[in-house]
Amino acid sequence: MSETSPRIYPSASRNEEPILEVLKQFLGHQDKIKVFEVAAGTGQHAKAFATHFSSASWEPTEYDESLLNDIKLHCKNMKNVKPPQKVDISKNVEDWDYSPQYLGKYDVGLCINMIHISPIECTHGLFSNMSKLLAYGGLLFTYGPYAVDGVISPQSNVDFHNSLKSRNPAWGLKDIKFLRKISKENGLKLEMVVDMPSNNKTLVFRRLPPSSESDKLLLTLPNRNGHGVELKEGCNGRL
Question: Within the chain, what is the greatest distance between any pair of CA atoms?
Fold first, then answer.
């Protein structure tokens, strides 16, 4: 990276359009949204998505300080993208070095390609902090490869999982059932699993209100065929 040329991750270039299509499908024309992004990487996604949602307030965060300048460069002159902040998502939001502007009022949380390549504490921290960052009814989107009911497939994902484990035993693909459990413990509900290119998935969680009515807050959205799809308990709900 130079002072004027940010790094570009090929994987982010490949997946930004499919992920944007999911966001467009779920968020529709809700342009004036408040977005909190975890593990923003180089800022390529922030640039692409905040360009589309031009009236959104986008707040990118990243643990790796060396990437903060890349985010600044990618999002240079974008008035709706806030300066990137260093965040260790494994820590409670109260212990961060800065205060998120819209604590408890974010419409969207976004976390791309972090869960499988970070310690489990980061996954726990993601859900516990999203339970404080998101407004009731707010959505958390996570993207990456996952195990399903204890099974990793296809073989390329098995090989990837083993490669991650060899690099760091704390890394590796997490099971969707496990993430559903953690989300429930933190007041969120897994509402949909969207199949993505290259054997990845986007998981969509909603922050539920502390009410007996919360189970009725099911998200009904148009899928690629224009039909509403709901994820109910015990149903994969794939698109």
Answer: 54
Q: Kind and range of the H or E element at 58?
A: strand 57-62
Q: What number of other Cβ atoms are within 10 A of residue 135's Cβ?
A: 16
Strand partners, 37: 60, 110
How many CA atoms lie less than 13 Å away from 200 in the CB half-sphere?
Answer: 21
Q: Per-residue pLDDT tens for 58-109?
A: 999 999 999 999 999 999 999 999 999 999 999 999 999 999 999 999 999 9
Helix (H, G, I), strand (E, B) or coil at 238: strand
**Three-state secondary-structure class, residue 128:** helix
Q: Has residue 157 got a pLDDT over 70?
A: yes
Round to whole Å and give the CA distance between 96 and 8. 27
Q: How many Cα atoms are found within 13 Å in the side-chain-facing hemisphere of 107?
A: 13
pTM for this entry: 0.87
Report the phi/psi class of residue 49: left, alpha or beta, with left for phi > 0 and alpha for psi in -120 to 50. alpha
Q: Which residues of 8-31 are buried (b: 16+ CB within 10 A; e: fewer)?
A: ebeebeebbeebbebbebbbeeee
Rounded CA separation 40/32 (Å):
20
What is the band of 2 on the pLDDT scale with cuts at 50, 70, 90? low
